[in-house]
Amino acid sequence: MNNHFYSRLLGCFIAVLIFGGGNLMAQPVLNARNIALGGGGTAYLNGIEANFYNPANLSVYDREGSIHFSLGTLGTFFEPVLSSGNPKSQFQRYTDTFLPYEPGEQGITTTQRTTILDENYSGNNLTSEHLSRADIIWGGLQWIGDKKSYSIALRTRLGSRIEVGKGWYSVEDYAQNGTSVRDMTLIKQTQALHEISFGFAQEFQFLNGLIPRINKLYLGIAPKFLLGGTYENSVYNGKYITDDQNNTTYQRDFTFYSTGIYSDMISSYLLSGSAENAIDRELNNRFLLKPTGYGAGVDFGLTYLIPLGSDVSILDSGESRKPIEKSLRIGLSITDIGVVHYSSQPLQLSLSQTNTQINAQDPVDNQFIGSAGQLPVFFDEATELPNPFFEANSQSDGNFTVSLPTSFNAGIVLDINRVKLMSDLTLGLSNTAFTNKKLVAHFGVESRPLPYLPLRFGTTLAAGKPLRFGAGTGFESRYWDFSISTQVLVKSSTLTSDVVGGAIAALRFHL
């Protein structure tokens, strides 16, 4: 397949996601239902999406039919550095996150720089984190039996995480451990993954006699095979440190890993010395989805289901089986256990910690959003700072392996007729393009004023992050359904809100 084909595919992929509908930290999957519910789903999500969140839910029989298949689920999230009330501009800023950097597109005024500082660096925060995310589940098939369930699902996901020090936008120093610090951190992580997942779930019967017979414990596992798209992991730790004698030292270290498109561009940059020329030469008609590595992983989960009241439908089987309507579910899962091995145009650079005395860098005139190629452009424009790409004291083109974005998830759902109340906790094992190490709480409610009309609302809470509120609806009949949702980010420091995410589920069929 040629580059033009891949370029068209990426363009369609991003456009559909945006029009179908940004930080859902550590969230294993985005779809129309859990975006509306604030992002959780450990005990709630079933269907083929459960492959990626909690495979044990594949055996939870809460709607009629033994065969279920989907034609696609689209989800997206965007956490802007500088938001725009203009939908067209907001759309462009999202797509710019994943596409090659365009000089001049991210310029900011003095007023906009002040807005960035007010909205993203409140209190004593010296860094600001921003994520962009896009998921598409191309399709899948699920079969639910009396004792065992099976499924297969195909997914592509894109993730981008940036972390930017306050010192790029302000010359102010802040007291820290007896010194004054101006933080120049600049982190960019981008990853694309194509996955095929095979789910299996069944009732765990070894606890018979230890738990009531009417209660059920389901275990699920979903091994998967992956192709890794273009990858970048850049970590620049820079600080101006002023001691009590007013001596200022600039301290920095740098690590850089890339494959495919990024390696081509950086190699060209190291030869030419011009980031903009390297972008023009190497990034045209290239993009994130082109495979550069391969890997394998597994998602694992368990769900404990407790029927409530007189609902004993969980004991039914065969043709007499009915969906359970009143229950308490408790779910636990570990997702994305595995690795990706990158072998296509790998590049590694590193700079060990270095200290020098340099002049103070003026605040930048561009916002950093993490576009492909923007990192070296930023250092080109920071004329007072040593450029870490050229300072690097170690370089390698050897293959490398990275872990998948593992996360731990726990959730509970109270299901009473037409109302479901749910709560989840998610925690990423490490900082990646998809996760960070902050604990995130999700709360949601689903109500059905009419049997076929679900209304979903939810919120997400995380330390140091703005509130997010979700809402969604859909239509559900006996044999098919669809859902839509949106999510709004509320910044308490400025009392503003932005539409930053959304999802749409294509038709799902139930036979």
From TrEMBL:
Pfam families in alphabetical order: DUF5723 (PF18990)
Gene3D superfamilies: Outer membrane protein transport protein (OMPP1/FadL/TodX)
Domain DUF5723: 80-475
InterPro entries: DUF5723
Protein name (Swiss-Prot/TrEMBL): DUF5723 domain-containing protein
